[in-house]
Write a structure and sequence with these properties.
Helix content: 40-55%
Protein name: Diguanylate cyclase (GGDEF)-like protein/PAS domain S-box-containing protein
Shape: elongated
Strand order of the largest sheet: 13-14-16-17-18-19-20-21
Low-confidence stretches: 537-542
Number of helices: 24
Mean pLDDT: 85
Length: 714
């Protein structure tokens, strides 16, 4: 197959070409550079697959690092150039359209794995060389009795010509011989080296078993041992080595000498430390990143009995506005300053600050008394953000919302703790921001339930989990049923029947309210047609009207009018059978563009009701410009009428609203009627229709038919 110009294969080959040009000059291969490039191409392909894989596999990176050693790229400079090339070009040529920040993090982890694989392969190769040298030394020692002069020459050639450091000492640790490589590693003369004793070379980073193994060897209890060990040079710098010490015995098998083979791993160790730092720290702020934070959090949560933890999850308030208005460069400078301030807040033992990404930071404290310490830490963070931050000559005020989780170790996983902190942080943000809140298990449960409902909403409509109940609209003058309000319900598989207050806000937030509202409208209009067909021969019943609620999202949807027309035409019902209810708050300050769809529907004959009237603090004069024919009075004005005597102020307000509505040729419907006294008082005040539990609770469509039929025949 021929790859398309500038396709993935072309970009992969470009990466392999750049890689081969960088590394070829420091290799020991007999291949030409084009041949070397063909050898690197499958390694580049493995790196590309590992970069884009669904699950990150560090073994791929380690395998590529080991393959470099197999390709004779054993010079440390070859690894350094390889890592520089991967860091600069792997994401550019092989990253595709993925999340760049995530790809860069993966690239850093791949580099770390490659360095580890390279180091392991080189170490195994060196160990093989060391073993060969040790065997040669042992063979030479055995042949001494037979041909001392020939063996001495052979051993001296190996001893002096080896690239690794070699030293021989007696069993008391006195140094007898060293080669040039060892002298260069320590930076001392042979005379100085021979004045040293092996036991003087202790270092604070020595592994606990290092000197135990040494003692066992000089006592003849083991033949050799291998450790990673650090040595101090005379200038104070540290030399890190892979150290192999072997025991040499005399012809009778008694221990006689110790032979040390040292490989200098200082540069490789520093490189590994640098890669580890880059893999666990945020490139912009220098703070520990998500990976490092989770390691620390997991360790804190796994601490012993009596230990506790406290976590502050910080999100900056309004950071997106700064990014959008001043640019991402200014936003980055702001984040760096915020990171510095946060770092100064977590200086006590057991405290750390990390950046999770974007403008999200976390602060962790551990110990036996985190209940007090985490509150103090959150307070320090809030105080640290008080002073404005200067960016490009502008003084920017920065505020943040913090969610706090505190508790004993060993009860929750890191993911559960961070989820609780995230939920709590958004609770603080919803309360106005610039504050911190403590985690509340009940609030967490509600948030998790909301999230579950949100994710289940799209498929719930497809599975037919929604149904509609109808609450009668009764004429206050004669008590007849004039129609019903359609109220959607969700029959959830786990939570049972949910009212609209549980899922309508979620549907509006996700945009599902448009298809859900369209479904409710069509089902309700079809039901209205069935009612009219059933009641066609009953003049006393009259045509029943269906009231359907419209959300603010539906009002702004461009297909509202056409969807309504199509539904009315498909069902074959007249527009006067439909009333669309719109909340007063949705129309406060509405411009002509928002009112235009409602005006078109009103001109067609669809009634428009202004729902929850009296709660939106709107100007009553606006009623004249709204295309409404019905006011639905909010129940807060009529609740006092359930008792006798009613609040005279409420009576006057309702009387005034009814008088105003009738003067504008608007009908008045009252919600929440629960007693006969309340219904009678509203009738006296001139209200037209009412609904509430006094008449009937929302129920199936058959109940409304029975109520209407009873009114007609009663």
């Amino acid at each position: 197959m021929i790859a398309e110009p500038d396709g993935p294969e072309d970009r992969l080959r470009r990466f392999a070409t750049i890689w081969s040009r960088a590394v070829f000059p420091v290799t020991s291969t007999s291949s030409t550079r084009p041949e070397f490039e063909e050898h690197l191409l499958p390694l580049a392909r493995r790196l590309s697959r590992a970069l884009l894989a669904r699950a990150f596999d560090a073994d791929e990176g380690r395998a590529v690092g080991a393959a470099l050693v197999d390709a004779h790229c054993t010079d440390p400079e070859a690894l350094s150039r390889t890592l520089d090339c991967v860091d600069a070009y792997l994401v550019l040529y092989c990253g595709g359209d993925g999340d760049q920040e995530d790809l860069r993090a993966r690239s850093a982890r791949l580099q770390h794995a490659m360095a580890a694989g390279f180091a392991q392969a080189l170490r195994e190769r060196t160990l093989a060389e060391q073993e060969a040298i040790a065997q040669a030394a042992l063979r030479a020692q055995g042949v001494v009795a037979q041909a001392l002069h020939a063996t001495e020459a052979r051993f001296r050639a190996v001893f002096e010509g080896a690239a690794i450091g070699i030293g021989m000492a007696d069993l008391d640790g006195n140094i007898l011989q060293v080669n040039g490589a060892l002298l260069r590693m320590f930076g001392v003369s042979e005379q100085t080296m021979r004045t040293r004793n092996v036991r003087e070379w202790t270092h604070p980073d020595d592994a606990p078993q290092t000197w135990r193994l040494y003692d066992e060897l000089v006592r003849g209890e083991r033949e050799h041992y291998h450790v990673e060990k650090a040595f101090y040079r005379p200038d104070g710098t540290v030399l890190w080595t892979n150290l192999t010490v072997s025991l040499l015995r005399d012809a009778d098998g008694s221990p006689q000498y110790q032979l040390a083979l040292m490989e200098d791993t200082t540069e490789r160790r520093l490189l590994n430390l640098r890669l580890r730092y880059e893999a666990t720290h945020d490139a912009l702020t220098g703070l520990p990143n998500r990976t490092f934070f989770f390691e620390r959090l997991e360790k804190a949560l796994g601490a012993g009995k009596g230990q506790r933890f406290g976590l502050c999850y910080l999100d900056l308030d309004g950071f997106k506005t700064i990014n959008d208005s001043l640019g991402h460069a200014a936003g980055d400078r702001l984040l760096v300053e915020v990171a510095d301030r946060l770092q100064s807040c977590a200086t006590a033992p057991g405290e750390m600050v990390a950046r999770l990404g974007g403008d999200e930071f976390v602060a962790l404290t551990t110990g036996p008394d985190t209940q007090r310490e985490v509150d103090e830490l959150a307070t320090r963070i809030m105080n640290a953000l008080l002073a404005p931050i200067s960016v490009d000559g502008r003084e920017l005020t920065v505020r943040g919302s913090i969610g706090i989780v505190e508790g004993p170790a060993g009860e929750r996983s890191p993911a559960e703790v961070l989820r609780s902190a995230d939920i709590t942080m958004y609770r603080a943000k919803s309360a106005g921001g610039n504050r911190f809140e403590l985690a509340d298990p009940e609030a967490d449960a509600r948030a998790i339930t909301r999230h579950g409902l949100t994710t289940a909403l799209p498929t719930a409509l497809e599975r037919g989990e929604f149904f509609i109940e109808y609450q009668p609209l009764v004429h206050l003058g004669d008590g007849s049923v004039r129609g019903a309000e359609a109220l959607v319900r969700w029959l959830h598989p786990q939570h049972g029947v949910l009212g609209p207050d549980r899922f309508i806000p979620l549907a509006e937030h996700t945009g599902l309210i448009v298809p859900l509202g369209r479904w409710v409208l069509e089902q309700s209009v079809r039901q209205a047609r069935e009612w009219r067909e059933l009641h066609g021969g009953l003049e006393a019943v009259g045509p029943l009207r269906i009231n359907v609620n419209l959300s603010p999202c539906q009002l702004t949807h461009p297909g509202l009018v056409q969807d309504t027309v199509d539904i009315l035409e498909r069902t074959g019902i007249e527009p006067d059978a439909l009333c669309l209810e719109v909340t007063e708050s949705a129309l406060i300050g509405a411009d002509d563009d928002l009112l235009k769809p409602l005006r078109r529907l009103a001109e067609m004959g669809v009634d428009i009701a202004l729902d929850d009237f009296g709660t939106g603090y709107s100007n009553l004069a606006n009623l004249r410009r709204l295309p409404v024919s019905i006011l639905k009075l909010d129940r807060s004005f009529t609740q006092s009428m359930q008792q006798f005597p009613a609040d005279p102020v409420d009576l006057k307000i309702v009387e005034g609203i009814v008088s105003l509505a009738h003067s504008l040729d608007l009908a008045v419907t009252v919600e929440g009627v629960e007693t006969g006294a309340q219904a009678e008082q509203l009738r006296i005040l001139g209200c037209d229709t009412a609904q509430g539990w006094y008449y009937a609770r929302p129920g199936p469509p058959d109940r409304l038919h029975e109520l209407a039929l009873a009114d007609a025949t009663g």
